[in-house]
Amino acid sequence: MFDVVIVGGGPTGLFLACELRLAGVQPLLLERRPEADQADKAHGLAGQVVRLLDHRGLFERCGGRGAPQPAPGFFFGGMPLPLHVLGAANPMHLLPINQRDLERVLAERAAELGADVRRGWDVLSLRQTDDHVEVVARGADGAEATFTARYLVGCDGGHSLVRKQAGIAFPGTTDDRVVDRTALIGPSDRVRIAPGGRVVIDGLGEIPAHFHRTERGVFTLLAHDPERPLVNTAEWEDRPAGTFPGPGAPMTMSEMADSVERVLGVRLPLSPPPEGAPTLLRRLCGRNTRLADRYRHGRVFIAGDAAHVSHGPTLNTALQDAANLAWKLAAAVRGWAPDWLLDSYQTERRALGQRVCAQTRVESALLAPGAEVTALRQFVAQLLERTENLQRVAALVAGADVRYDMGEEDPAAPTGWFVPPLHLTTDDGRALRLAELLRDARPLLLDLTGGTDLAATAAAWRDRVHRVRATAADAPAPALLIRPDGYVAWAGADPDGLKAALVRWFSPN
């Protein structure tokens, strides 16, 4: 019997497998595709999830350099956010990486940790009892097999079989008015990148490269790779009959050029990327915004797109779903997790899913054509001139605006929030970043008091909570109890408060 079966080997499933292995649990990951998906999909991670990857030592493996640094600007509803004015309070970090490369890095890490990843297995059905889950799957040779595990996690996308068979509803809305087109193109003399995130287009002039809204739609150009820029358009329902092929019709470069012309009013001769480079031609008809009514049914859980889909930062949210769930499943496998701990996965993460769905609807509304929307954008732009409003929107976009309830009536300021990026000097004289102490995904008691009371209190949990004594000039509290997912479970100096938090989150001893 396996500890956990994971269905779906995209970024969410692979990261969950890594997190479970770090927690000492043996997962089995079943992926329908025989080979890794080489399609060009998401093109980067943004917000709090970037720091989570840094906690696991994956930031640099994904192309980052040194420690994550706040981005000087970002966008909300296509409107620029001058985040540099927030200084140290800026929560937005960026990691430009194609989803294809992210999956490769996570697959390599899962293999290093000894996760059992099996490709070419198509899950057909599941059945759960009081103490286990049975999964029936068909292998690449056509033979069927039954896999048994204590828990099952569906990371199998928006059309999740696991979610459907578990009887979990997936309510939401579909906006059929919008058609999104995306293509990777070759370099062109008529399109030139300008400083400050802008682009010069012959016949049009200089415009923002990101989210250039017109009364006919939205145009976006991303040039992380100048040899194959990414072009995207979004068009709404006011369009000539027959200009939008049905969902089953193949996307062509000519169709992409037609869409760009409708949005911008100028014709650009688009060509494919250089021979041998990855290509992309994709049309999405309609925008889904859906949120599962629950994330757990008995021993079955869902995460990532299986739990929430939107035209927004779902991948950023999905990886944090995995980090939240993994350590709680590991505690249950080891037999010391109360049932409410597994339930807290839904309580905590579904709130984030709701925020992402709301954010997506607001941003889509701000990008739509129309004089009313133009007036609304002008009003929102005025609101964003106030630092406190900019801070709230930045936290929303970064996924850093929800504080978990850690069970205290009057928690200290950092309790319930994602831990800040502290710079430490340990008792043995080492200078390091807090992220370096979180590589192994163990609970961490960061003791900054220099005393012995907290050490005596935490001694009974030394087998599952790592304690480090250090100093930090920018410490938000005398001591922090940090969960494996990076959230502060307790902060302060009171031994009784620490003991209560240890009992609550990591079981009585």
UniProtKB/TrEMBL annotation:
InterPro entries recorded: FAD-bd, FAD/NAD-bd_sf, RIFMO-like
Domain of life the protein comes from: Bacteria
Segments forming domain FAD-binding: 2-359
A GO term for molecular function: oxidoreductase activity, acting on paired donors, with incorporation or reduction of molecular oxygen, NAD(P)H as one donor, and incorporation of one atom of oxygen
Residue runs in coiled coils: none
Entry keywords, A to Z: FAD, Flavoprotein
Claim: Transmembrane is one of the keywords in the record: no
Record organism: Goodfellowiella coeruleoviolacea
Cited Gene3D superfamilies: 3.30.70.2450, 3.40.30.120, FAD/NAD(P)-binding domain
Name this polypeptide is given: 2-polyprenyl-6-methoxyphenol hydroxylase
Keyword Flavoprotein recorded: yes
Cofactors named for this entry: FAD
